[in-house]
C-alpha cells in the first residue's frame, strides 16, 4: 500500500467574490468551503494533508486550526503548478492527490476511484463531460483514446474548443512523478502561469498512462468564482440534505425552502414547514413539528414538541411534549421540562422552566428557575441585571405570577405563592403567601380633560 498526501490549493484571493474574506473561507451550508473538502478527505486515510495558502494566510490558519494540516505558503500566485511545487519538500514517497479549496462538493467515492490506479506507470486525472465547456481546459486524446494533454480555453484552437470533455484540475500522481515533472513546467502561455495540467503531456511523453475518472454528476467538480456560483452550490447542497432527510422519513412541506447549516438529526414523524433554518448541532425528537420560518441553533428538542411559526431557539434543551411560540425566543441556557409552555412574544435566557409550567405571552424570564406547574402572567419580567451583575429569580412549584409583574432579582417566590397583577416584588415571598404591591387608585368624578388651545 502506498502512502497518501493530499494537497489543497487555497491561496487565491477570489477577486470576483468582492470580499475581504479569503474565497475558500466563504461559508457553504454553515461552514467554510475548504472545510467541506477537509471533511471529505478525512476518510481517505492520508498520512499528511497540506493546505497551500497565500492571500489571507493568517485567517486560514486561524479558521482551520482544529484540522491536522500542514500549511504551505505560496507568497506569489504563479499558477497551479507553482502552488503544488511549494509543498514538494513536505511530501512523502507515495501518492499525491491535488484538490482545490473552492471546489467543495467533491465526493469521497469519486476520489477513491481517481486514486485507485495511480502507481509509477499510471497517474490519475478527473475529467467531466459538459454540455457547455466554455472556460474549461479541454482533454486531448490520441487515436487510441488515451489522454495525452490538456489545452486551456485561451490557448485552444477552434477544433480543440469543440471538445466537451473537460479538465477539472483534480489529479493524482506519485511524488516521484511530481519531482520529475514540476521543474519542467513553463510559463510561456496566455496567462503567464505555471499550469499543473502541463504534466499530462509530460506523462504521455514518458509513457506513463493517464487513467481518467469522472464524477457521478458535474456539480461535484464545479468551482466557485463569484456569488452566483456560491448561491447555486448552496442550493445544490441544501437539496441533497433535504433529499436525505426525506429518505429518513422527515416530512418537509417544501424541500426547496429548507436550510441546514450544520448537523440536523431527526426522529420518526418529524414535520418541518417552510423557511426553517437549522444551525450548528440540532436534534429533533420523534413527532416534533416545526412551524414556518423558525430558526433553531445548537439545541435539543424533545419528542412531540410543537414549535409555532417565527420562533428562535438557541442553545436550549427542550425535554418533550412542549409548546413553543409563535414568536418565542429561547436563548442559551434555557431548559424546558416535560410539558412546559413558552408562548407568543416570550423571551427566556438561562432559565429552567419546570414540568407543566406556562409562560404564555409577552414576558421575559432570564437567570431564573421555575418549579412545576407555575403560571407566569402576561407582561411579567425578571429584572435580573443591576447594571453590573446578573442575579437569579427562584419561583416555587404551583406559584402564580399575575400579569405585568416585575420580579427584582435576587428574589424568590415560594411554593404555592400568589403575586398580584401589576406588582413590583423586591423581597422574598413565602410559601402559599399573597404578595401585592400597587399604588392607590385615584378616581375623580366629572374630570375635565384639557382642551387644545386654538392659538397653538
What can you tell me about this protein's structure?
The protein is of the alpha/beta class. Helix content is 15%, strand content 32%. It has 8 helices and 37 strands. The strands form 6 sheets. An 11-stranded parallel sheet has the order 12-14-16-19-22-25-27-29-32-35-37, covered by helices on one side. An 8-stranded parallel barrel has the order 15-17-20-23-26-24-21-18. Strands 5-4-1-6-10-7-11 form a 7-stranded mixed sheet. The termini are far apart. 42% of the residues are buried. The mean pLDDT is 96.
Considering the chains and any ligands shown, give keywords for the structure.
single chain, 456 residues, alpha/beta, 11-stranded parallel sheet, 8-stranded parallel beta barrel, MobA-like_NTP_Trfase, EC 2.7.7.23, repeat
SSE layout:
Blueprint: E1 4-10, E2 27-28, E3 31-32, H1 33-41, E4 48-53, H2 57-63, E5 70-73, H3 80-85, E6 95-100, H4 108-115, E7 122-129, E8 138-141, E9 147-151, H5 158-161, E10 165-174, H6 175-181, H7 199-206, E11 209-213, H8 227-247, E12 251-252, E13 258-266, E14 271-272, E15 276-284, E16 289-290, E17 295-297, E18 300-301, E19 306-307, E20 312-314, E21 317-318, E22 323-324, E23 329-330, E24 335-336, E25 341-344, E26 347-353, E27 358-361, E28 364-370, E29 375-376, E30 381-383, E31 393-395, E32 400-401, E33 406-408, E34 411-413, E35 418-419, E36 424-425, E37 434-435
Parallel strand pairs: 1-4, 1-6, 4-5, 7-11, 12-14, 13-15, 14-16, 15-17, 15-18, 16-19, 17-20, 18-21, 19-22, 20-23, 21-24, 22-25, 23-26, 24-26, 25-27, 26-28, 27-29, 28-31, 29-32, 30-33, 31-34, 32-35, 33-36, 35-37
Antiparallel strand pairs: 2-3, 6-10, 7-10, 8-9
